[in-house]
Amino acid sequence: MSGNPSTRAVSGLCSTNLCDMILTSIGKAAALYPQRTAIRMKGDKGYEEYSYRDLLAKIASLANALAGQGIGKGDRVALLSENRPEWMIAYLAVVALGAVIVPLDAQYTDKETALLLDSSEAKAVFVSAAARAKLPSLSAVKIISFDPREGIDFQKMLRMHPEAALPAAPAADTPAALLYTSGTTGDPKGVILSHGNLAANSASLTKLHILKPEDNILCVIPLYHTYPSMLCMLLPLGTGTTVTILNSLKGADIAACMRETGVSIMAGVPRLYALLRNAVFDEFGKRPAPLRLVIRFLLAICGRLRRAVGVNIGKYLFGMVHKRFGPALRIFASGGARLEPDIYTDMFKLGFTVIEGYGLTETSPVCTFNPLAGPKAGSIGIPIPDVEVRIVNPDKNGHGELAVRGPNVMCGYYKKPVETAAVIRDGWFYTGDLGFRDAAGYFFITGRAKEVIVLPNGVNIFPEELEAFYKQIPAVKELCLIQTSRGLEAAVVPDFEYLRKMNLSNSREVIGFALEDFAKNLPSYKRIAGFKVFKDSLPATRLGKLKRGFVAELYGKSSEGTGKEITAADAQLMETPVAQRLLACLTLFSAQKNIVPDDNLELDLGLDSLARVELVASLEKSFGLELPDAFGSEIFTVKDAVTRLGALLSSYQPQAAEQARQSWAEILRQEPEEGMRGRLKLEAGLPGKIGQYLLKGMLDLFFIAYHRLSVQGLDNLPDRGPFIIAPNHLSLADGPAVMAALPRRIAAQTFSLGTSEFFGGPLTAKLAKLMQVIPVDIESRLQGALLLAAYVLRKGKILCIFPEGGRSRDGNIKEFKKGVGIIAGELKIPLVPAAIKGTYEALPTGRNFPRPALVTVKFGKAFHPGDLDYDGIVRKLHEEVVKLL
User: Fold this and answer.
1) 838 or 22: which carries more pLDDT confidence?
2) What total number of domains does the chain contain?
């Protein structure tokens, strides 16, 4: 490795190197507590354990056995395996020998593995049976197998020198590890960390007194990263702590392991803590509404009390939650990526202690850590002992690049002196991360310098901050901002579990509405101008960091959705009679060829909510049965539909298949079921008429006195129904404003559709009857909404429909949905365009009580759909409303 930055002297290195740590700490632990468990791993047959005495002996035996294989100081030895005790033993034996360990991701492709083995010039490689297929043909590289297989037997090497001692400790500036930050490029960049780098970082963390000898730390993150290898191997084994390995990220498995082994500290990444937090709060969400209010109140009290006086009552009030993780749990440690403040805050309120640190591979890795006595949400904490952190070239707000100096800073990039000189200047390592320091000395990260989006107006956007804001949307699982010619756009992965739970099948519409809603108070340049929805996770590292370049490439090249893959079981499923008949119906609605079970009805096959209604009607005709109202919202994929239909058809005999696409005329001719008709009263009795008279009078008085209501175009209204009034939609005040604007005789015959979210309760349902609002769940029971609308109109009544389908989030008119065109076109009834102004200012989204504002309602001339098709009707209606505005 001559001519490499690794050979330089590293100023400020601590006198203790990594091998000294092994000899003193592990040796001391072995002498004082020979039977104490050093490493434990849960497998199929229970727990496999190594005591400190066993561990020290095996490291020494393996180091001597490696020397017998010709491995010496400076030789690179790769490590390709999932987490297991053998991984740690191999790592420590290699560095004890003075050779250089090259940890590789077991999830790399065979091409990536071959590239990095070649780049590192590895002389040997440790490999597990699970990762063996990744290795290319390696004639010049010794293969040491953890499991019985071809190559050198690892287990024999552990027994080869039972009485051996560790080799003499290498010097502090001797390279110990070569770590690649990515395996996906043709010119990989390897970070060289010396014995002194790693020992210094371990020593600094030891001074924080986070770990105690009696602790048990749980490792669930791949050890090839510097963060888990430091926190779950080098640091704990240097303090006599027990390390428990678990190769599962399932919440139930993690909780069970923590209870069974008495885990006191877990080292995880933000994505894992988000899953744990969501699991807890999902359980809270299943409780009755009064209990949910109590839980929210208790969480608020716990948080305030803990922040104010440091008293943690959350672990008692939410004892059942804590019980899942066992009584010994003290700390959740987070690293590898940014922990969202809301995740920290929720866990804090529950009574958990979550501490976040910051570092990079180049800094061995930890630079800062939140102090246990005073952590801050959203902060990466303060510098650890012996490490300096500063903000370089801060702007007027104190924001700039973070630079680090200390004995933990790498020796350099392997055989890349130019790249090394670019990041290490005057003894400081320039991280490329942007952030600021608050008055109390806590550091905050705002993003990566190379990832900052510079808009045409010169404004800088820090994508991580804005992404975190938009990811508060419950329907969004992942989101990555992309800069395009249109402005900011987003690649979005929906949270299909949430959508399924809420019976929301149209993910694009739900997410688009929510994105507008969230952005209403943001400056225009922070609003998302467009987005694409993807089924599968966006490209990211194993620690959860987005690979933005790959996401941007995917966004530019790909339509929504992913490629076609099908398993043997799925292929068999698609050959069943139910699947074949379903496919016959699907081909009538989608131009997609080669339909597979995992195809999403919306994202892959292009079925919007109206097409789902048609599909459901056609399936009913084809299969000869009546499907449940919520069937259309319960199915997201083709496999969902096959499974659900199979369950419903279990007591039916299949009939001859029909490729029967029901027309909208046939659908709308159907009578709504009796339960749905019971939600409205076509003719009010005397008490109802009195109530409507009083309600109308109060609305008139309120809008005239408070909003100075101005009404125009009343003479354009037909004398009697049926007809449709179609206004733009700005606010929740729009429906009452229209009713106040209508003459009493017309208002008495006018019905409107209202979401069951507002009018589905016992009391609000009675109010809905009085107000002649038809409560419907338009998302999960759209067909029922359309049938009720048609039913009311066939009875000669008047219907008020807001064609946009949802309120405007910025006061501007939105695209009209096709539903109003279908109803008007099939029933051949006139439409009255209407324009509302002022209600957006009076009652914008998020406001609970209207403020004074001039409200105007203007009715345009009625027009008949004639021979126009659905799209033509909607287009003409939109044009007329725009003219009125």
Assistant:
1) 838
2) 5
